[in-house]
Specification:
Elements: H1 2-27, H2 29-32, H3 40-66, H4 74-90, H5 97-108, H6 112-145, H7 150-169, H8 182-195, H9 198-225
């Protein structure tokens, strides 16, 4: 029965995956139909950028978990990166984090509240680097095209201030008598484990920068495939 259940679960998971993939193709079919025949060089470049992005994302996963004492092998952090990215494409919202959380819980007994802490560390560093690059981009637009948007700048500046405060001065909360609040407090306090590891914060920030540059090149190529020069 155990083998039968595993086989049934595999078939069910595969069916759901194929349905989600079919849903994605159906929703975006009009976009696929606009793609022109392009040089194999474009395809090779996009594949290379996808691999590089998955590798940098995998390194982010690796070093964030290293802060909690978990050492992932290459095939683990690279594989988790691929699975996360694929599920994010075909599933609503950030569905890719679910299989990653399940794998880490099953393989390393990594508690879900600590997993949430690792996610918060990822988002904080991503938002910090993204806000810095966003403000720099606005200044470049001002210098080169005399085009500046104060609303967008204020948004970026606000994100920068909030994330910088979280990195430098985030408080540590105590447990309460309210049971359902304590898991949230544990998750928030788990950020201190990452924050206190300067090496991890530095490497994750550099990987965030690399991901932004890779995304930039990917956007450039994607628009070029549709015949739009930017």
């Amino acid at each position: 029965m155990n083998g039968f259940h595993k086989k049934s679960l595999f078939i069910l998971s595969l069916t759901i995956l194929l349905l989600l993939f079919g849903r994605y193709i159906y929703i975006h079919w009009s976009e696929f139909s606009q793609i022109k025949i392009v040089s194999p060089i474009y395809i090779f470049a996009i594949i290379l950028l996808t691999i590089l992005f998955s590798l940098t994302y995998g390194l982010v996963i690796k070093y964030l978990l290293l802060a909690f004492g978990i050492k992932l092998r290459f095939n683990e952090y690279f594989g988790l990166s691929i699975i996360t990215g694929f599920y994010n494409l075909i599933a609503p919202l950030t569905g890719g984090v679910i299989p990653r959380a399940i794998y880490l819980k099953k393989k390393y007994n990594f508690r879900y509240r600590l997993f949430v802490s690792s996610l918060s560390g990822m988002y904080i560093t991503h938002f910090l680097m993204g806000s810095i690059l966003g403000m720099l981009s606005l200044f470049m637009l001002k210098l080169n095209y005399n085009n500046f948007n104060w609303t967008i700048f204020i948004v970026f500046a606000s994100i920068f201030v909030v994330t910088l405060v979280l990195v430098l001065f985030s408080p540590k909360f105590k447990r309460t008598k309210i049971k359902w609040v304590n898991p949230l407090i544990h998750s928030i306090n788990g950020w201190h484990t990452i924050r206190n590891n300067k090496k991890v914060v530095f490497i994750v920030s550099i990987m965030s920068l690399a991901q932004t540059l890779i995304n930039m090149l990917g956007i450039l190529l994607a628009f070029d495939i549709f015949g739009i020069k930017i």
